[in-house]
Design brief:
By secondary structure, this protein is α/β, with parallel strands linked by helices. It contains 20 helices and 19 strands. The protein is elongated and about 80 Å long.
Length: 546
């Protein structure tokens, strides 16, 4: 049975609902089935892991404990996709897999069974299988379930032995072990299969990078990632999600990468029961419909629970409880070339922060009745590595891409900020008419800016001043009026931003409970919006009218 075609036909005939991304992935797979090139589809190889799982693996928890694992059609179609496409030598095409699926759809059970197949059924000599996670407890979830499957199978328990910290196959010298990110053995791995469960919980990309690099000596390795969405933005999860999207859309050519992203296509679909299976392919067979109904009702009744529902049951990327804006409101992947803004009038905003912390400058340009945002960030060069570890964001990668600069030394040189404004003016003829700033710690810098011909306006950092501009900014972000060039640091800052409300329902930006959640990019943009409102009529008239 070709489960890929069976599943695809049901999608095409509207018998089942899937996300747009899943549909597009299966369209590509069916095209490859019908148009074999370097890789062809081998039905026998495609079915081996399915037969292995259903023949040798049993559940160990809940109402299914002791019963054989019976895979759903969507799971069989995915497994055939991973293992069925091979070259003339029989080596697999796909080496990396991302599955995003809502909670309680059998993620850990599937991972455990596949780990055992890669350990014993894939016939790889000296196979090293690792389940890696931020913490050992998380990594052991899949490992312990696999161990329980071995105990329940006479054949597997005959050939797979439990040692102190791993499962071992003496016949092939193969091992399976759980590892945490702080393990001393990560750098010495030679993995045949790496498993990352709940990718969303990993705040930096080291685990992913080390796992991928450890597979370079293997002929047909597999890095297997299954996860729900999460609340941590601009981390490895977002990076992999966007990479998968680019591969699907042909922006990136990576024939070794495969993704199945089960999600709602729109945030509004969470109240439409007919759409729920888009994020829950196991709904009714693996996941309880009654359980999901109860969660949805609670989400309607309890606004604080709603972000968790949207993220964990429907894979909508959210910003967390208490956040100012939803991720759907914030997210905008549009880009532009700075050359398109040449000979423009602009409005600026600056958040200098402390001399040893993150500083941001924003320049808002209205051109052809659209808004374009330029931003630059700075951190001290001597503190960059430490801050990358503390903040758990890739400052070094952002520096390579030009979003952030390192000020030489252990503190920020505010002249770097001035020089950026001068560069926009002198190189690109982008003339910043007014720049909003917080006067705290800014006396020297303001004099320098004024001496270079820039007009500055103090922005009081209180709710009375910032509330109306913030509400306008929120509206403009939600309507996608602002093109911020898909700047990942601003996206991160916006997702970290919460609000404080006074007795008159005026709002101001604040950090969440985590002091490492930077909001400097948000504050800089709000400062620009305060000035924008102060000079609204003049600026609109200068830039082409309403």
């Amino acid at each position: 049975m070709n489960y890929i075609l069976e599943y695809y036909n049901l999608i095409q005939n509207s018998k089942i609902k899937v996300s747009k991304k899943v549909k597009k992935q299966f369209e590509k797979l069916v095209f490859d089935l019908e148009n074999p090139g370097k890789y062809h589809f081998d039905l026998d190889k495609a079915n081996r892991p399915i037969e292995f799982v259903e023949r040798f693996c049993k559940h160990s928890k809940g109402k299914w404990a002791g019963k054989p694992v019976v895979l759903d059609l969507w799971q069989k179609a995915i497994l055939q996709s991973i293992f069925g496409f091979v070259n003339d030598n029989g080596d697999r095409k796909y080496r990396e897999l991302l599955i995003v699926v809502a909670r309680k759809n059998g993620k850990s059970t599937l991972l455990s069974a596949i780990a055992l197949y890669m350990l014993f059924g894939d016939r790889e000599g000296g196979a090293q299988i690792c389940c890696v996670a931020s913490k050992k407890e998380q990594a052991k979830i899949v490992f312990n379930e696999a161990k329980n499957m071995v105990v329940q199978s006479p054949l597997l328990s005959k050939h797979i032995k439990k040692r102190k910290s791993d499962l071992y196959v003496p016949l092939t010298f193969s091992t399976f072990e759980p590892l945490a990110s702080d393990s001393n053995t990560l750098d010495g791995l030679n993995m045949h299969c790496g498993i990352i469960d709940e990718l969303h919980s990993i705040k930096d990309r080291n685990i992913y990078d080390v796992s991928k690099q450890s597979m370079s000596a293997r002929t047909q390795p597999l890095l297997f990632m299954i996860t729900t969405a999460g609340f941590v933005r601009e981390c490895i999860y977002d990076a992999m999600y966007e990479y998968a999207d680019d591969v699907l859309n042909g922006i990136i050519n990576d024939e070794r990468f495969l993704s199945f992203i089960y999600e709602l296509d729109s945030r509004s679909e969470w109240t439409i029961p007919e759409c729920w299976e888009k994020a829950n392919p196991g709904l009714g067979t693996i996941k309880s419909l009654e359980f999901l109904n109860e969660n949805v009702q609670r989400g309607k009744d309890d606004s604080k629970f709603l972000p968790t529902l949207l993220t964990k049951d429907f894979n909508i990327r959210e910003t967390g409880v208490g956040s100012w804006l939803s991720f759907e409101s914030i997210n905008n992947t549009e880009t532009f070339d700075i050359e398109d803004l040449r000979k423009s009038y602009a409005i600026g905003g600056v958040d200098l922060s402390s001399v040893g912390d993150l500083t941001c400058a924003s320049v808002l340009v209205r051109k052809n009745k659209k808004y374009y945002l330029l931003q630059k960030y700075w951190i001290p060069s001597e503190k960059a590595e430490k801050k990358e570890t503390e903040d758990k964001v890739p400052y070094s990668i952002w520096k390579e891409k030009g979003y952030i600069d390192y000020s030489i030394g252990n503190k920020i040189d505010y002249t770097d900020v001035t020089n950026w404004f001068k560069e926009l003016r002198d190189k690109y003829e982008i003339y910043v008419l007014w720049t909003g700033y917080d006067k705290w710690n800014a006396q020297y810098w303001t004099e320098e800016m004024k001496n270079n011909g820039f007009q500055l306006e103090e922005v009081i950092q209180g709710a009375r001043t910032m509330s109306a501009p913030m509400k306008l900014l929120a509206s403009d972000l939600e309507s996608k009026i602002i093109n911020y060039n898909n700047n990942p640091i601003l996206k991160w800052c916006l997702t970290n931003t919460q609000i404080e409300v006074d007795k008159n329902e005026n709002i101001r930006p604040v950090k969440g409970t985590n002091s490492k959640q930077r909001i400097d990019g948000t504050v800089s943009l709000i400062d620009a919006y305060v000035v924008f409102q102060n000079h609204y009529e003049d600026y609109i008239n200068l830039t082409g009218g309403k």
